[in-house]
Specification:
Rossmann fold; binds NADP nicotinamide-adenine-dinucleotide phosphate; alpha/beta; 9 helices; about 15% strand; 7 strands
């Protein structure tokens, strides 16, 4: 029997899917949120069920506030929420800031920033000891881009992840006395579909030479960091962002 519920936004593919599966192995009942790829979300849930775990797929765009309410309502049906992974994130195709449209910027910040804030808000309502909850954990997905700036590629994405880093620092302090630890994971170059959505499917392999380990990371390697931060082993860790980059230096 599981007694903790973990909501993973963007749990249908990549880092989110790996996190959902690992969380199920650790005893969580998992809410696998997805935006449009129902088959992928159902495949994650089937894999979890085949291993004896519990998971439900819930469609919802974290860039749409009404959808967030629906995602959390579905989570409530599984049991008391114990954790949130703010993983859903988007990039755009490579272009300099001077060419970025208002629509692009609005969508980028709605999904990557406002979506993370609103999901955290819903999670806090349920987990905070100030609201009668049992406490819990939040992990926000940052990116090495937050420190590097991603010039001529996606400065908008990089800036959205910079906002997430600051969000993690501030929210952790707000919630420290309410039983909720808030941390971030800052992946470097990870081999997932996100690079295709940015118009460069081979980007992860092509970038290997800039990584000291000379390879991209895997979604599982990031999932392990996320699940450690959510675990009791990280009981005194809050307000920090853990870089998972194969040694690629991320300077302040
Ligand atoms: P990915 O392979 O592109 O998968 C994205 C996931 O997010 C999918 O499950 C997708 O759902 C979901 N999603 C996208 N937009 C959404 C929305 N508006 N609402 C709800 N779900 C949405 O991405 P990834 O590489 O695993 O990245 C996961 C996180 O890590 C992101 O925050 C990303 O910025 C961060 N990150 C990734 C890398 C990297 O190199 N991969 C590096 C640094 C940081 P559907 O399947 O339905 O489309």
């Amino acid at each position: 029997m599981t007694n903790k519920v973990l909501l993973v936004t963007g749990g249908s593919r990549g880092i989110g899917a790996a996190t959902a599966k690992l969380a199920a192995q650790r005893g969580y009942a998992v809410v696998v949120n997805y935006a449009g790829n129902r088959d992928a979300a159902e495949a994650v849930c089937k894999s979890i069920a085949d291993d004896g775990g519990t998971a439900v797929a819930v469609q919802g765009d974290v860039g749409v506030p009404e959808d967030i309410a629906r995602i959390f309502a579905a989570a409530d049906e599984l049991g008391p929420l114990g954790g949130l992974v703010n993983n859903a994130g988007i990039i755009g195709t490579a272009e300099p800031v001077e060419q970025m449209s208002v629509d692009r910027l609005t969508r980028m910040f709605a999904v990557n920033i406002t979506g993370s804030f609103l999901c955290a808000k819903e999670a806090i309502k349920r987990m905070s000891t100030r609201h009668g909850g049992q406490g819990g954990g939040i992990v926000n997905l940052s990116s090495a881009a937050a420190k590097l700036g991603a010039p001529n590629n996606y400065v908008d994405y990089a800036a959205s992840k910079g906002a997430i880093d600051t969000f993690t620092v501030g929210l952790a302090q707000e919630q420290a006395e309410a039983g909720i630890r808030v941390n971030g994971v800052r992946p470097g170059i990870i081999d997932t579909d996100i690079h295709s959505s940015g118009g460069d499917p081979d980007r992860a392999q092509k970038m290997s030479s800039v990584v000291p380990m000379k390879r991209p990371g895997t979604a599982d390697e990031v999932a392990n960091a996320i699940m450690w931060l959510l675990s009791d082993e990280a009981s005194y860790v809050t307000g920090t962002t853990l870089t998972v980059s194969g040694g690629r230096a991320i300077l302040p």
